Amino acid sequence: MQIDLSNKTALITGATGDLGRVMARTLAACGANIVLHYNHNEAKANELRQEITALGRNAIIAQADVTNEQHILAMKEKAAKELGHVDIVVANAVIQYQWTSVLEQSPSDYFSQFESCVMQSVYLAKAFIPAMIERGGGRFIGINTECAMQNFPNQSAYTAGKRGMDGVYRVLAKEVGEHQITVNQIAPGWTISDRDRANHTEENAGYSQHVPLKRRGTDQEIANSVAFLASDLASFITGAYIPVNGGNVMPAI
């Protein structure tokens, strides 16, 4: 048994980011063609495109502000023209900001998180799911966070955006399930990425001591979970919020 995404096309927003790069490589290794979304880092997007085409897959880059519906629609048209229909959507992009307390956080940060978590997902759904309905299937995957369950100090804007996103995905899963479209979320913990490897900051005892598996997860482990949900192996899983964080948070029944 293996994950086979041959003849599938996947769109990954935030594909040039720490987690997005590994998702793109992983889905391509499973056989998928890739639409690499970026906002500012065109050079990294082109570098990643070259990596994926070297694997024998087709890949294109697409610039867009994911908080702008017209940009999302333009990205859909570019993908359709150059690669055909998109079978797998991975909403991974999020706006970065400086975390602080509720009393000190700028209102603009709450708006940015709502736009990049909730509205990005709504725009992607409106753009790509109608064609999935016509074809009778698809995968819609969002990258959430363990923070949505932690509610720690200084997380308020991020947690608010991701909790709003969670509501959209759960409702959407019920609305499109009859068309064999699955809608799921991956919730990473504090994940080791290439940035940590370069800075030798992989270990953090203060965090890991609270994780049942006693370590931080890796970008590859997050990407593996995305590949699973994108595949036929996950054909009967929908509406799920799946923590990939070594048990650091555990949803209750």
Automatic annotation (TrEMBL):
**GO molecular function terms attached to this record:** oxidoreductase activity
Q: Out of the domains of life, which is the source?
A: Bacteria
Q: Name one GO biological process term.
A: bile acid metabolic process
The record's listing under InterPro entries reads: NAD(P)-bd_dom_sf, SDR_fam
- Matching Pfam families: adh_short_C2
Keyword match Oxidoreductase? yes
Q: Does the keyword Oxidoreductase apply?
A: yes
Tell me which UniProt keywords the record has, alphabetically. Oxidoreductase
Entry similarity comment = Belongs to the short-chain dehydrogenases/reductases (SDR) family.
> Know the name of this protein?
SDR family oxidoreductase
